[in-house]
Batch of 2 targets.
Target 1
Amino acid sequence: MLGLTPNTRVFVRSGATDGRYGADALQGVVTKVLREDPHGKQLFCFCNKARNRIKLLWHDGSGFWVAGKKAPQGGYDFPKNGGAVMRMSMAQLEALVKGVQFTRLQTPRYRR
């Protein structure tokens, strides 16, 4: 029904996107900033400035879907590099939406 499969290409706009944007404004971001065709078979992911809400945009062949999620606590480990575009798999997107932290933990250094 939604047209999403494990092979769906996922594009993530790093940095902040205005959380008030709806389908039309997000289509504009996809076209002008990401330079992709919003009518394709890919999914686009956006995050607000506070990094506590994400929005997904995709086209199923007959119209656009917009889905949003608010982090229950803390926020999402969303890329901060403003204006850059990243690709990830559906599995990586699922982990991001579930709140998995992607940043590498540093091993504590001990002095002797």
Note: Strands lie at 9-13, 42-47, 53-59, 64-70, 85-88.
Target 2
Amino acid sequence: MTTTLDQLDSRVLRRVDCYGQRFMKPGEYRYTLCPAGVGDVVDEAPFVVEVTDDDEKGPDDATREERRIGQATVVVRHDGRRFVAEPAHVRVRVGDMVLWNGPDDRPFTVRGAKEFFASDRLLNESGYSHVFTVPGEFAWGDAYGSALHGTVRVSMPEVRTAKALDAWRARLASGHAVVVADGRAEPAELDVVVGQTVFFVVTNGPGVSITDTALLDEKGRPGAKDDDKDDGKHDDKDDGKGRHQGYEKGHA
């Protein structure tokens, strides 16, 4: 049985999830952290991603086009009153990616002052990762109504020998990537084992979600629970260029 922790839904970040965003222009990008489902208004943005231009060769003697994409990780915690980012100020270079992960049991959303910068609606050069902790078949779609869809099949490996255990651990160390571009997912179907991470990398799009179809109605929208049906559906309110390398580097 799928628990709340196991739910596949990029609109609601839990400790088995990460949100990633690449920043393709220099500048200061302010954002807030809020409980999932509170709406799309940013009334304060106390946290900062500072992006510096890097056209000139740096200490590693590599230009922006030549060097590998850098990655910074922000840990999201709840201090008893509100969500806080550690560190509160991140400094990266143009083209780098920032990952957000919350080890606490409080679901949250990352929402920036700029339209492209939001974990609950994935736009260009963003991503979402999920660790699958239970076996089963997970059909997913876009809560914002596009035709984007896919399926992840999760199996429980038989671990009866030391060799089988080593093989399972080796698989856990490697993630799978699903690239979303032009309204399509590639691959659309994927087979993984329990404990493995899948990275959904959105290279371009109008703003999508990766959401278990069990949470959507027949038209692909967030579903409200019907008093006549015990289907457990609920409603969560909604509201960069470059390559996608780097997102597979790790999961906080």
Note: The CA atoms of residues 146 and 235 lie 17 Å apart.
